[in-house]
Amino acid sequence: SLCCFQVIRCRAAVAWAAGKPLSVEEVEVAPPKAGEVRVKIVATGICHTDEHLLEGSFPNVDFPVIPGHEGAGIVESVGQGVTSVKPGDKVIPLCIPHCGECSFCLNPESNYCLKSHLSESQNLLPDKTSRFTCKGKTIHHFLWVSSFAEYTVIPEYAVAKIDAAAPLDKVCLLGCGFSTGYGAAINTAKVKPGSTCAVFGVGGVGLSVVMGCKAAGASRIIAIDINKDKFAKAKELGATECISPHDFKKPIQEVLTEMTGHGVDYSFEVIGRADTMTAALASCNMNTGVCVMVGVPAAGSVISVDPMLLLSGRTWKGTLLGGWKMRDCITKLVSSYLEKKFNSDALITHTLPIAKVNEGFELLRAGKR
Ligand code: NAD
Ligand code: ZN
Ligand code: ZN
């Protein structure tokens, strides 16, 4: 019906320029074009990747932009040809799309999609236009999600329908942080029962790694963070030991090697720094150790490593969204959430209205969430 194809006026947190606070504005959200879906966002998390965006760390992202990529909502209207979702369906937007047709999507080992933003140098929808305007200006999308808007438009292949019983204010975390960390342990590292793991950085994503290691049956999970306020939650979720690099004179990789004899079986870097990435690599077993990079480094970062660290047999790999093929997996993850197979609710520290979005970022910067 025609009513579905009107411009919607709603609030959104707009980043006008890098390094500036967000401003909550009234924006216009155009109707979805063919193959697109307009979603009423009900809840969104704040992931450190949004903070990287505000800092201007992504050279491919144009401002002004509406950030947010960890949302959940309800389909408001669909464009021509959309068949997988309909108005009223609960959905989670996927920050890695899943077109199901490209060579990466067809590869069962891959969770990347060639339609994804990493292979494009702008942040508009696939037809190179935006559905957002504010004060007469075009506002860019972020990862085709832009969940800091009350309504957003997303390509059909970047949304997945989820169980109607799912609480959107909780499962939004499955859109990025929880799935990334949990999947990094289960899918990317393939943590084995009885193994020893080290998790560098126990913010929201690192805590999810801890949960994944525990679910995979790791017997020892060592959390490493410079903020000791993070340790209580890490222990509650499965960390067996928590250490701060500030408490040791020696480099942390030496501390971990001494604690474990020959290094950990699996290490995870969940901070986004070059120095902790190499420390995590050196912390795992010289021959059979697996190190997974989860943190997003600053643009232009370069790592130099002693090649012997790898020559001796270690495996160093990265992960995007925990390796899940999103459109199939998010639905299953939501079902597992509803069956209480994991407790991602433990990651929720504060719930704020959109008007207080800057306060949310202050909490993130202060390490309080
Ligand atoms: P966060 O800010 O909540 O947590 C980061 C943690 O690292 C904090 O607890 C902080 O105290 C700790 N830390 C900082 N410097 C440290 C140091 N030198 N040594 C030890 N600990 C240190 O962030 P988050 O939302 O959990 O995200 C973590 C990282 O994961 C970010 O870089 C984010 O961009 C990235 N990320 C990657 C993916 C992916 O697909 N690979 C997905 C989501 C997030
Ligand atoms: Zn994220
Ligand atoms: Zn694809």
From TrEMBL:
- Listed GO molecular functions? all-trans-retinol dehydrogenase (NAD+) activity; zinc ion binding
Keyword NAD recorded: yes
Quote the InterPro entries the UniProt record gives: ADH-like_C, ADH-like_N, ADH_Zn_CS, ER, GroES-like_sf, NAD(P)-bd_dom_sf
One GO biological-process annotation of the entry reads: retinol metabolic process
Tell me which PROSITE patterns the record gives: ADH_ZINC
Q: Which domain of life is it from?
A: Eukaryota
UniProt keyword terms in alphabetical order: Acetylation, Metal-binding, NAD, Oxidoreductase, Zinc
The Swiss-Prot or TrEMBL record lists the needed cofactor(s) as: Zn(2+)
One GO cellular component term of this record is: cytosol
Please name the PANTHER family in this protein's record.
Answer: ALCOHOL DEHYDROGENASE, ALCOHOL DEHYDROGENASE 6 (CLASS V)
Family, per the entry?
Belongs to the zinc-containing alcohol dehydrogenase family.
Q: What is this protein called?
A: Alcohol dehydrogenase I
Natural source organism:
Pluvianellus socialis (Magellanic plover)
